[in-house]
Amino acid sequence: MSKMIVVTGASTGIGAETARLLAEGNNIFIHYNSSREAAEQTAAEVQERGGTAHLVQADLFGEAGCDALYAEVSVMTNRVDVLVNNAGGLVQRQAVGELEWGTMERIFALNTFSTMLLTSLFVPLLEKGTDPCVVNVTSIAARHGAPTATLYGAAKGAIDSFTRGAAAELAPKIRVNAVAPGVIDTPFHERYSTPERMEKFRKSTPLDRNGRPQDVARAIRFLIENDFITGETIDINGGLFMR
Ligand SMILES: NC(=O)c1ccc[n+]([C@@H]2O[C@H](COP(=O)([O-])OP(=O)(O)OC[C@H]3O[C@@H](n4cnc5c(N)ncnc54)[C@H](OP(=O)(O)O)[C@@H]3O)[C@@H](O)[C@H]2O)c1
To answer: 133 in helix, strand or coil?
Structure first.
């Protein structure tokens, strides 16, 4: 049966690749915020791969955007099988000695609050799904300190914790898991990392390369398919950080 799959932040990078990988035979709700053209490109590729694409625009810096995303999806379907909370970003680098309340709010709003609120809003539709699950996207930054990205790491760490709590609370009907990407080559790093920094990451990675969006998308698909995993966070980082 065709799955109803919502992928937030599916205009570029990991989200776009996840939408493409999950496309065949499924309905993919491709959420984006500002990258309309890229989202249309993802939608075209989903269609080419035998999926049905629905574009949904929403700014997830605030509650209103989460509500709008949910409202738009719920007009189109009365059940959801998979919610991938992928939209996020570093937003702004800030040193621990110079933290500002507004920056804290924005980083947590986009990464953490939107993940938590969307999960909550979608519970009734997920309850009507088949083997329904949520996959959240955290980060290696939650595990080891990343200077000037400490707020981002803390926001992702909160998602990690939320994942386990939600998994316990929503079982046995809805599974909740997460992926923690390492350094993945996406537009994210075009904004926040110099080529020199990317090369340094590569050299520090035991598997001797930075990640690709498909490395993460495959782990997301694995978590969707394996119905005996919940409350888990999978690291996809080439060995850059080992637990
Ligand atoms: N790349 C890495 O090394 C890495 C490592 C660890 C974790 N991650 C996480 O992986 C996820 C995907 O990142 P990526 O690497 O694929 O980067 P990306 O290509 O920059 O994708 C980010 C996605 O989030 C969306 N987004 C950004 N701000 C938004 C807002 N205000 N409202 C709604 N959506 C917004 C973007 O939409 P628009 O462009 O349409 O605005 C885009 O689709 C993020 O949660 C990121 O924190 C990435």
So the answer is: strand
In a domain, 241, yes or no: no
Whether residue 242 lies inside any domain: the answer is: no
Q: Which atom of ligand 1 is nearest to the CA of 91?
A: 28
Q: Is the CB of 70 under 6 A from ligand 1?
A: no
For residue 33 and ligand 1, the question of a CB distance below 6 A is answered with: yes
Q: Which residues are catalytic?
A: 152
Beta strand ranges found along the chain (DSSP E): 4-7, 27-32, 52-57, 82-85, 133-137, 175-181, 233-236
Give the three-state DSSP class for 107: helix
| 90 C-alpha to ligand 1 centroid (Å) | 8
The CATH number that applies at residue 227 is: 3.40.50.720
Task: Record the pTM.
Answer: 0.98
Query: Which strands, in side-by-side order, build the sheet including 82-85?
Result: 52-57, 27-32, 4-7, 82-85, 133-137, 175-181, 233-236
Q: What is the pLDDT of residue 101?
A: 98
Per-residue pLDDT, averaged over 54-74, amounts to 98
Domain count for the chain: 1
